[in-house]
Amino acid sequence: MSAAAGRIGPNAILQVMAVLRAGPGEAACRAVLAQAGLAAYADTPPQTMVDEAQVQALHRVLREHGSVAEARGIGRAAGLATGDYLLAHRIPRPMRWLLPHLPATWSARVLLVAIRRHAWTFCGSGQFSAQLLRPGRVQLRLQGSATSRGVQADEPLCDYFAATFERLFQALVSPASRVQEVACAAMGAPACEFELDW
After folding, report:
1. Would you list the DSSP string of 35-86?
2. Could you read off the pLDDT of 42-75 as tens digits, one per residue?
3. Rounded CA separation 81/121 (Å)
4. What is the crossing angle of helices 68-89 and 52-65, to 10°?
5. What is the pTM of this model?
6. Where are the alpha helices (DSSP H) in 99-151?
7. Which residues fall within 8 angstroms of residue 181, CB to CB, at 6 or more apart?
8. Burial of 124 (0-12, 13-18, 19+ CB in 10 A)
């Protein structure tokens, strides 16, 4: 277990803030942060790992502040932006060049190894696993997702994570990659599960 267990990379908050500021605006962003107990981040955004409870609170307030559909849209937009950030700042340039030139199944295997290795940065105290089911399909499993833990809902809530995975696979494996959350802890499943196809 990593020493960082229970903590998540700051993009889970930073990119939500960016989406709110670009859409509803600065006042809405500050109102959501304040309601989530994160008012200080409006002027001093987090630059290091954050407590996963803060991410849980932020996504809970997004759903309370607007509709679930709006919160899911914000989560997806923030996830795509997080994927872009990772591609620009965390994926080595040689890998960004090499993976799209390999057969997609090979690229997927390499990318899955990297995601598993760095899962502690987005799992917090949860657990992540990934399995290549067959060429063109991957199953991703996130137990203890910060966006759905302790929540009850009638629809999946992990759009942030689904979109982050999707953006990485679109850029590094196949532009046709699509991720769908097929089970969610918020709906009573033991873990959030995603199917990735390309």
Report:
1. HTT-GGGGTS---S-EEHHHHHHHHHHHHHHS-HHHHHHHHHHHHHHHHHHH
2. 999 999 999 999 999 999 999 998 899 999 999 9
3. 16
4. 140
5. 0.95
6. 104-117, 120-123
7. 156, 158, 159, 162, 192, 193, 194
8. buried
